[in-house]
Amino acid sequence: MGTQGYADAVGEALQRLEGLGYERGTNGDLANHGPMGAEALAVLGFGEAVSSWVEGYKQAMPHHEPPAPRFDIDPSDESSWREALGQFHRAGDWERLFWRELREEPWQRVLGRWWPRLLPGLMAGLTHGLIRTAHATRSVAAAEPPSDLALTELARGLAYWAARYTGLPGDARLIGKHRPAEAVARLPRPEAEGVITPPMAAERLRRVRLQDDEEFPGYFEALDDIAPNGAQWLLSEMTSTFAGVYLAHPEILPIPLIHGVTAPAAIRLVLPYLPSEQHGPTVATMWQVHVALLMAFTSDASPERHSLDTARALELPSGPQLLVGAMEHGDEHVIKFAEACQREYALRPDPRYPAAAFAAQQRIAVLGR
């Protein structure tokens, strides 16, 4: 692990990141990646680099002020908490609620109670509510009892998910006949004129949520296309397939499709602490998010058919070199992607994982760190 262990590195990072709001940037809708990036660096063994990385991250882009709590959310009153879902101005209220619950009950119980309530809004912050919650869960689970800093970060992950809760139309069910890779290949893609720019992608995603059947045919049919199978196997199918999707589309914005891998990889971190009956619905909802991502950001599936051959033909750095490259690159997406791909590759040695992680290092600009 180096000179600084995981727990100490994460604890110091959370102290240094205290005071940053949930989002950053001039538009105020880019998620705070500091806790996630720092935790990923620490788990990769770069604990000694975490503090300097955090300071560089804080200077790269201004963050907004943390939201102040205003009104209590009553967790026993369904109308109270449902009305607050997706209300970003209530983020401080959500944080206070989760902070209180995590200090009154075992964290596993709180997570298991709120997970199915938040699950339909998995797209929250382009899945960053889920991902921040998962990184925090790994930190909380690493020590018994968990530190106050780790529990606070878990409260913030859940609060961001609740405050940016974003539902999608329809309900995904594991009742189909196809593997995820086959379902991805079968999914119709809406055409686009030229490169899909950030404003175009945001508008397409908004219309997917409103569900224009003429513009996005096949959406509802795709929701039931995945065959039932074990959650762990399905997650590997999803991450390997979407590593290939990322590799196959150098023309597309280099960051959004990363979440097709990091989100299901994040789910894998949390599943051991959830009741088994929640595993299937969780994977099904992840597939629904995948359908929306593909319809918003891609318009041609043909390059994806060759992604495995492309990955096999590449000359790549070794696994350790790839991780060092991500750390030296410094972008939070590159770091989190490398960590997720390395973890998934350990479970299923598919060459698309390292190929996609290396591609991200080439495609995403170094942000002055």
Derived from helix and strand composition plus strand pairing, the structural class reads: mainly alpha
Q: Percent of residues in beta strands? A: under 5%
End-to-end distance: 23 Å
Mean pLDDT: 94
Determine the oligomeric state from the structure: single chain
Question: Helix share of residues?
Answer: 55-70%
Q: Which segments are poorly predicted (pLDDT under 50) over 5 or more consecutive residues? A: none
- Specify the biggest β-sheet: 2 strands, antiparallel
Strand order of the largest sheet: 1-2
What is the radius of gyration? 19 Å
Number of strands: 2
> How do the helices and strands follow one another from N- to C-terminus?
HEEHHHHHHHHHHHHHHHHH
Number of helices: 18
Question: Which overall shape is indicated by the principal axes computed on the Cα atoms?
Answer: globular
What does this structure look like?
- The protein has helices at 6-17, 34-43, 47-60, 78-84, 91-104, 107-118, 124-141, 148-163, 180-186, 198-210, 219-223, 231-248, 259-270, 279-297, 307-313, 319-329, 332-347, 352-363, and strands at residues 23-24, 30-31.
- Helix content is 60%, strand content 1%.
- A two-stranded antiparallel sheet has the order 1-2.
- 50% of the residues are buried.
- Strand 1 and strand 2 (30-31) form a beta hairpin.
- The protein contains 18 helices and two strands.
Write the layout of secondary structure elements.
Elements: H1 6-17, E1 23-24, E2 30-31, H2 34-43, H3 47-60, H4 78-84, H5 91-104, H6 107-118, H7 124-141, H8 148-163, H9 180-186, H10 198-210, H11 219-223, H12 231-248, H13 259-270, H14 279-297, H15 307-313, H16 319-329, H17 332-347, H18 352-363
Antiparallel strand pairs: 1-2
Helix pairs in contact: 1-2, 1-3, 2-3, 2-7, 2-17, 5-8, 7-8, 7-13, 10-14, 12-13, 12-14, 12-15, 12-18, 13-14, 13-17, 15-18, 16-17, 16-18, 17-18
